[in-house]
Automatic annotation (TrEMBL):
Keyword tags: Methyltransferase, RNA-binding, S-adenosyl-L-methionine, Transferase
UniProt protein name: rRNA methylatin simethyladenosine transferase
InterPro entries xrefs: KsgA/Erm, rRNA_Ade_diMease-like_C, SAM-dependent_MTases_sf
Coiled coil: none
Domain of life: Bacteria
PANTHER family linked: DIMETHYLADENOSINE TRANSFERASE, DIMETHYLADENOSINE TRANSFERASE-RELATED
MF-aspect GO terms: 16S rRNA (adenine(1518)-N(6)/adenine(1519)-N(6))-dimethyltransferase activity; RNA binding
Binding site for S-adenosyl-L-methionine: 1
Record lineage: Bacteria, Candidatus Dojkabacteria
EC number per UniProt: 2.1.1.182
Family affiliation: Belongs to the class I-like SAM-binding methyltransferase superfamily. rRNA adenine N(6)-methyltransferase family.
Amino acid sequence: NPAFFIIQQEVADNYRNRVNNQLGLVTHIYADVEVLFDIKAGNFKPRPNVDASLIKFRPNQKYSNVNREELEKLITRSFKQPRKTLNNNLKQYNYKVPKEFVRKRPHELSLDMYVSILETN
C-alpha cells in the first residue's frame, strides 16, 4: 500500500530530480517515490516559511533479493564524509571497492552500483 506525505519542497525536489544523496538512495531501496504536486506556503495556517510537496511512496520489490540492511549500511558508511572518495570512506570497514569505483565520491554512484559493491563483498 502506498503512503503519502507532505514534505518541504526542497527535499521533494531531490526525489523529483533523482539526486544521489544518502536519503534518496536509501529510500529507493524500499520504495518508488513520486512527487504528486507542490503546495504553496500560503495554503497553510499558520503559514510556514517554505513551500511543500505531496509525495507518494510506493513499496517496491526491486531490491528484495539483496540484503537491504547491509545495503543501507554500505550507503550510510559511504556518505560519512561525502567529499572523500568511496575507497577512503569504506576502507576502515574492510569493503573491497571495485577498481572502477575507487576514485568516485559517494554521490557519483547509482543504487545499482552500490548493489554491485555489496555483491563483491
